[in-house]
């Protein structure tokens, strides 16, 4: 039976019922709805609506229901209740009879659903924070294993300057660090309790909303009932966090797809995260990474869907807002899954260090070094840049690396070039020079790794 039948003469059409019901989606809020209901029953006892015995009976029945659901969560989906709030109330009434009908006193599904969803966001947010940390850990382990491995660094997907594989790993550790920070900020703002806001105007019972908020585990109660029941900023913020983090994950995926390509051959992905082709027996495709890249679009879609749903909605609650959960659940699940998959991928990466070294040695990745060498001989950088450009042009036409020119050949471009130039042109020298904070020298990578490990231990 619906929660609101009294005012209606006709039954809802079957099509409308299906259209309107949210149980197939919001059943996931069952734990939060039960928790919220227990706290509400205590608040009702405090204002004299329920006796202590009544509150105890309701609480016991709600806890039993919670255990039953834990054993058999699928049972919810066999019900024809409109939503999870109706389902919990129905089950309560079945368990304790008329007493169950008192629980909704002074409460509306509007403040109820807002509360349930915030509780869900907080719990899921914690899980995501841990998933981000796990991926950071896997990347730090990879950085440790490959901290000395030379990797060509790219700009415009053109070989630019050599870096180390460890430095590449730690770039993503930084990105996920910002994601954790963003998530924590969003969770801090979400940590306010709407319960007691009623349908829109505030409940008519003298509930101590501060006590209720802390009983629910919130930092404080919300301060405006109209806003509290119609605020979905937390949904949008979490999906924004998910979108930005998925953008990072998609770049991680794309880098690795390229490194794993036959053309680059820098890494081999483990069999555990790749699949074969039904036709071409030789294939080993980077599906896990492609799916991470692909799911990014889906998460962006959920964010823009919700922004569009909320746009220009009048205060306060509107049924449009029921559309918040599907996208949120999907975005958060996808994000979590991609983070977990990222760990599996990172753990199984085998780096082909001779291929990465060979690639770093080609493509004139040491041209900047030659320019810096000329600068050390008092040639202004802009002039040095031009001279090296000419040397590179010549090297390309002869199919040579810069260090393959004889001293006499180099001196055609500048008489200041001496025998000591060759040590400048080695990969080792390119790396060693990047001693600046945040640079790719082995010492700096080691330092960055230590700092990241220490930061992680502090969480
Ligand atoms: N199922 C609804 C939602 O998810 C909550 C119910 C609010 N319904 C209402 N008629 N005010 O938003």
UniProtKB/TrEMBL annotation:
Which molecular function GO terms apply here?
Answer: acyltransferase activity, transferring groups other than amino-acyl groups; argininosuccinate lyase activity
The record's similarity note reads: Belongs to the lyase 1 family. Argininosuccinate lyase subfamily.
Protein name per its UniProtKB record: Argininosuccinate lyase
The chemistry this enzyme catalyses reads: 2-(N(omega)-L-arginino)succinate = fumarate + L-arginine; L-glutamate + acetyl-CoA = N-acetyl-L-glutamate + CoA + H(+)
Its Enzyme Commission number? 4.3.2.1
What's the chief localization of this chain? cytoplasm
Shown segment, full-protein numbering = 1 to 459 of 660
Q: What's one GO-annotated cellular component?
A: cytosol
Task: Give any single GO term for biological process.
Answer: L-arginine biosynthetic process via ornithine
What pathway, per the record?
Amino-acid biosynthesis; L-arginine biosynthesis; L-arginine from L-ornithine and carbamoyl phosphate: step 3/3; Amino-acid biosynthesis; L-arginine biosynthesis; N(2)-acetyl-L-ornithine from L-glutamate: step 1/4
